[in-house]
Amino acid sequence: MSQKDGGWGAGPSTRYEELAERFRSIFSEIRATAVERDAERRLPRTEIGWLKEAGFTTLRLDPAAGGHGASLPELFNLLIELSQADSNVTNALRAHFGFTEDVLSSAFPDWRNRWIARIAAGETVGSGVSETGPAKVGQFDTIVRRRGNDWVVDGRKFYTTGSLFADWIHLSAQDEDGTPVIAAVPTRAPGVEIVDDWDGFGQALTASGTARFTGVVLGAELIKPETVRFPYAMAFFQLVHLATLAGIGRAAADDVARLVATRTRIYSHGNGARTADDPQIQAVVGRVRGNAYASGAIVLKAAEAVQRAADALQAGGREAAEPISAIADVEVNQAVTVVTNLVLEATTSLFDALGASAVKEEHGLDRYWRNARTLASHNPRIYRERSVGEFAVNGTRPPREYRVGTT
């Protein structure tokens, strides 16, 4: 069924349905075991493998380079559909799509072409940016030291989302003098240990745990020749979370409608001979679905702003892209609280359409709220509202980078 026929609105392009059809059977297979995997804490290695084999991880590459030439609105709409199947899988691929964007935006042809070839070959990249140690804001405890022609990495990262499933880790660190260093670390290199010790109550299957680096030797070609990311990186990474939330909303809407349609027990003080005919129950289902619909529409509108920033970068370079990227940040930040509130409400109120049996583990409905609440806790949304207000009142652009650490 097309997205439009399902009542979720038309896709972001005339060719979107053709592009999406290549992956929808995989999305369906992923969703079929989502409840079971969540209950058993079974990591989605196989499911991510299916997506890699189908070329999902090459979406943003040009067809001539082995990809699909997807626009950013097309990418984000596909991430909504993937998240409707399992939000864990989308989150596990977030760093990969961000790294891909970084590669496509690089001003260094050797680096860009080398990584385009690797991504086209199906290789994927996980995250190695955040730390939970005593490093101050803007600094890292992970150190990359030059040793002759090579570099040696020592340190520890947390929130290494997706790295356990990936071929590479996108590492942010610093050298012995405190200068920023960005590197690509093979996940199977001697001295790399990735541990699935993420114990959050949501997004439990993303392998967002610890990565340790002990004397890991890297060739010079694995050190990124620039230490800046693509100008619209903040908007891009946050919008992946919002697309994931929108997908959770759709999945919750689908499940509550399905369970209401098949429910045979009614209440004596209800409004119909069948639960499916009870207008109060129908209103709850409609509210959940409306929240999900609005969330998806907002994500696609914000994706247009991110696409404008990407186009400006390709046409005029970083200087031309900076002001447009700042506006993309504003648009995404404006969406953060609205989308999170819509989805958190939807994943809570869906239970009002069902009886007490809806909380049984076999349905797995609690995972929608748990996953949404976990995603909504990233990059605190209260600061997004404040930055939007500051822009509206004083014309101040949002911060170009977010970092966490001690004072």
UniProtKB/TrEMBL annotation:
**This protein's GO CC annotations:** cytoplasm
Q: What residue stretches are annotated with the Acyl-CoA oxidase/dehydrogenase middle domain? A: 136-215
Please state every residue range assigned to the domain named Acyl-CoA dehydrogenase C-terminal: 240-378
Q: Which GO terms describe its biological process?
A: fatty acid beta-oxidation using acyl-CoA dehydrogenase
Q: Does the keyword Flavoprotein apply?
A: yes
Q: Which UniProt keywords apply?
A: Flavoprotein, Monooxygenase, Oxidoreductase
Question: Would you tell me the protein name for this molecule?
Answer: Monooxygenase
Question: Which organism's genome codes for this protein?
Answer: Methylobacterium gnaphalii
GN (gene name): soxC
